[in-house]
């Protein structure tokens, strides 16, 4: 099994570390395709690492094998010596040549053992390339033959093995092939998609990824063959692609094309200096078209590789920031086919919800369809489940739930009937009490700056609107604040844990503590005991005291992660829970959620903030599954009268 560890994530997208014999590869990573013959490689492999920060490569073991001078040198010096490259090297197997020419002059086992002999870090099974338009019977035969070859390869290969995922355009075959690859491979390489990239069939690409991704083992590293254009990197990352290979940087250069994340530009149309990367500063684009063809191709390849490397860096940064969907939306504007593919993905939130984080730091609109992201659908689904979804009633603009506003909004009619205030938002009508929850609270939208937005949203103006809507006084009344606080607490807990949670937890007597600086609700207490802390995402997160109540109120397996017996004492003491010590988890939990960490007998041990999705826990043999945020602390022994202050 690959030594792969997830260190951060945004949905399916993962920042990870893959350990190889030639160093650790930080993912997502771009592996430029290089020719094994140095004389035919536009940019030297050593320069690819030194100048472009790309620490791994992919090259052809088949071309190396078929060329006696290259083969002899690779067998003497290893593939790293042949390439003059000291980082991780992946080798493909000749499957594309087999597909293009109808055959290859090597058996699957021969090319696999050759990859072993030349010391490749990641060897690839010689699979059967299945065209996207192949009939089902032909695609099924390809999947089964690839399975047979993968089993043979796994029996002799001790190092990292890439097993391709085939199946053409058929979801059932992609699922079966994904399961086979997950059982036998370390690198799970989704193949048979190069024609989809070449023909801009991105809509079909996302259906292929959607069929394969849930069935690819969490511990495997996902490779997508042929993702060469930088405008597609963010889309691939949304489906959890960890490794990309690219020959596009040179192929497009040979055709006189420059790659940008926003699309492709023909060199002969350029009249302005639209790029000032190192290569374009050295030889300006306005002059490059007059350069000799060999120099022109090298300069274009250098530009394309730098732009591709920078875009992969943007993808990794977006994962860190939780803004990958925003990046993908911006990149989708590069081509209508890409936009159609992303729109289709949003129509299927079920493709993403199993790994969708509970919240992110921000939610910025890039267009109207930003409100169809999986996070928005999860919010709406929880709202429907909570029983608090607004139907009719007076509305107010989205506003901060702080005392100076709340004291001017009547929570009930003159005869005591609650008034169901709601706020029109791009996510739909939302109860006033939930407008600080993610994604509504942190959302930065066009409507926040549009001319339709009221020029002034002040406490006085809100009071006037409330009075106009209800006929009740809109003047300040401090007695309303405790009522609103209680409603805010009850509604938030119902949204998070379900409509029955209030009666199960007995919230009578609970109070809310607000920030002295901002006035926002920050702590839910009973007496002087803090039960829930509320961060900037508005989501209530339990202390250990609240966890004890939740543990009694919610039957197993709800909200639980089950810890293996050998790790119980460590978690009880507040140590992080590692993935290999997870035995089960509530599938409704999400990365970033606060969960009850329990022992095998359902004993409550701690509260943990999840780093992994339930489907990943236990399957990942390295890395942390949950960081303990609260646990039962051992009583502090009383100090004697003469105890030293230095103890």
Set down the secondary structure blueprint.
Layout: E1 4-10, E2 13-20, E3 23-27, E4 29-34, H1 45-52, E5 57-60, H2 61-66, H3 68-83, E6 89-92, H4 95-101, H5 108-117, E7 122-124, H6 136-156, E8 160-165, H7 171-184, E9 187-190, H8 194-198, H9 202-212, E10 221-224, H10 233-238, E11 243-246, H11 248-254, E12 257-260, E13 263-266, H12 278-282, H13 285-288, H14 293-321, H15 324-332, H16 336-346, E14 363-364, H17 374-386, H18 403-406, E15 422-425, E16 428-431, E17 443-444, H19 459-470, H20 480-497, H21 501-505, E18 510-514, E19 521-526, E20 529-534, E21 540-542, H22 544-553, E22 560-563, H23 568-572, E23 577-578, E24 582-585, E25 594-598, E26 604-610, E27 624-631
Parallel strand pairs: 4-5, 4-11, 5-6, 7-8, 8-9, 9-10, 10-11, 14-17, 22-25
Antiparallel strand pairs: 1-2, 2-3, 12-13, 15-16, 18-19, 19-20, 20-21, 22-24, 23-27, 25-26, 26-27
Helix pairs in contact: 5-6, 6-7, 7-9, 9-16, 11-14, 14-15, 15-16, 17-20
Describe the overall structure:
- The protein has 647 residues and is an alpha/beta fold.
- It folds into 3 domains: 4-351, Queuine tRNA-ribosyltransferase-like (TIM Barrel, Alpha-Beta Barrel), CATH 3.20.20.105; 363-522, no CATH class; 543-631, PUA domain (Archaeosine Trna-guanine Transglycosylase, Chain: A, domain 4), CATH 2.30.130.
- It is 36% helix and 19% strand.
- The protein has an 8-stranded parallel sheet with strand order 6-5-4-11-10-9-8-7.
- Helix 6 (136-156) runs parallel beside helix 7.
- It is globular.
């Amino acid at each position: 099994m690959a030594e792969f560890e997830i260190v951060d994530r945004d949905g399916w997208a993962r920042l990870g570390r893959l350990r190889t014999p030639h160093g650790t590869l930080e993912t997502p990573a771009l592996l430029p395709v290089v020719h094994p013959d140095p004389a035919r490689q536009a940019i030297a492999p050593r320069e690819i690492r030194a100048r472009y920060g790309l620490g791994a490569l992919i090259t052809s073991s088949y071309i190396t094998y078929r060329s006696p001078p290259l083969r002899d040198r690779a067998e003497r010096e290893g593939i790293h010596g042949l390439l003059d490259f000291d980082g991780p090297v992946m080798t493909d197997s000749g499957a594309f040549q087999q597909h293009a020419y109808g055959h290859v002059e090597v058996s699957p086992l021969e090319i696999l053992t050759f990859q072993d002999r030349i010391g490749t870090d990641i060897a690839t099974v010689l699979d059967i390339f299945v065209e996207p338009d192949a009939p089902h019977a032909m695609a099924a035969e390809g999947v089964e033959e690839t399975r047979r070859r993968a089993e043979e390869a796994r029996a002799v290969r001790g190092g990292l093995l890439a097993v391709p995922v085939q199946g053409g355009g058929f979801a059932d075959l992609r699922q079966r092939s994904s399961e086979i690859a997950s059982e036998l491979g370390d690198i799970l390489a989704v193949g048979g998609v190069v024609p989809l990239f070449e023909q801009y069939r991105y809509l079909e690409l996302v259906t292929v990824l959607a069929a394969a991704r849930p069935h690819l083992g969490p511990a495997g590293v996902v490779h997508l063959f042929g993702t060469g254009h930088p405008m597609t990197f963010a889309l691939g990352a949304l489906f959890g692609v960890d490794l990309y290979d690219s020959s596009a940087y040179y192929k497009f250069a040979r055709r006189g094309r420059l790659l940008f994340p926003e699309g492709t530009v023909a060199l002969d149309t350029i009249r302005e200096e639209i790029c000032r990367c190192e290569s374009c500063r050295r030889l300006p684009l306005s002059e490059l078209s007059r350069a000799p063809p060999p120099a022109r191709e090298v300069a274009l390849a250098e530009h394309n590789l730098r732009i591709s490397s920078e875009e992969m860096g943007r993808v990794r940064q977006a994962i860190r920031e939780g803004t990958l969907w925003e990046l993908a939306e911006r990149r989708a504007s590069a081509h209508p086919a890409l936009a159609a593919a992303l729109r289709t993905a949003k129509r299927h939130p079920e493709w993403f919800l199993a790994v969708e984080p509970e919240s992110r730091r921000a939610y910025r609109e890039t267009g109207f369809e930003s409100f169809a992201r999986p996070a928005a659908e999860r919010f709406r689904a929880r709202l429907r489940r909570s029983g608090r979804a607004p139907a009719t009633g007076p509305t107010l603009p989205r506003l901060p739930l702080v005392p100076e506003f709340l004291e001017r909004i009547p929570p009930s009619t003159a005869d005591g009937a609650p008034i169901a205030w709601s706020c029109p938002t791009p996510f739909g009508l939302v109860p006033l009490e939930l407008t600080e929850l993610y994604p509504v609270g942190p959302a930065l939208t066009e409507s926040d700056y549009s001319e339709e937005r009221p020029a002034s949203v002040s406490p006085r103006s809100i009071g006037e609107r409330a009075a106009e809507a209800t006929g009740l006084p809109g003047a300040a009344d401090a007695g309303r604040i405790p009522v609103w606080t209680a409603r805010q607490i009850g509604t938030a807990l119902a949204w998070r844990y379900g409509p029955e949670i209030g009666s199960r937890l007995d919230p009578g007597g609970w109070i809310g503590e607000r920030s002295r600086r901002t006035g926002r609700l920050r702590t839910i207490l009973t007496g002087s005991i803090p039960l829930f802390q509320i961060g900037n995402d508005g989501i209530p997160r339990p202390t250990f005291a609240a966890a004890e109540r939740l543990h009694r109120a919610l039957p197993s397996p709800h909200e639980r992660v089950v810890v293996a017996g050998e790790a119980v004492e460590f978690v009880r003491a507040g140590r992080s829970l590692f993935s290999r010590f997870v035995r089960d988890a509530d599938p409704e939990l999400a990365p970033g959620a606060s969960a009850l960490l329990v022992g095998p007998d359902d004993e409550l041990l701690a509260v943990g903030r999840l780093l992994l999705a339930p489907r990943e826990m236990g399957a990942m043999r390295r890395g942390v599954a949950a960081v303990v945020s609260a646990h039962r602390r051992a009583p502090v022994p009383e100090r004697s009268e003469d105890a030293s202050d230095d103890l």
